């Protein structure tokens, strides 16, 4: 593989400048998610994750059924 292809692959694997890392705790507080959902996100990602991943995987459980 050529060096330019290796560099391109490395750049693709790195989080881009547009990909913000958020504290899971801050995300849960801002979006008023349940403690159960906070624990689930912490198990998935640890204390920080990309904003895009958090939005894609967060689940809001209805209090009214």
Automatic annotation (TrEMBL):
Q: Which domain of life is it from?
A: Bacteria
Listed name of the protein: Uncharacterized protein
Species this protein is from:
Rhizobium redzepovicii
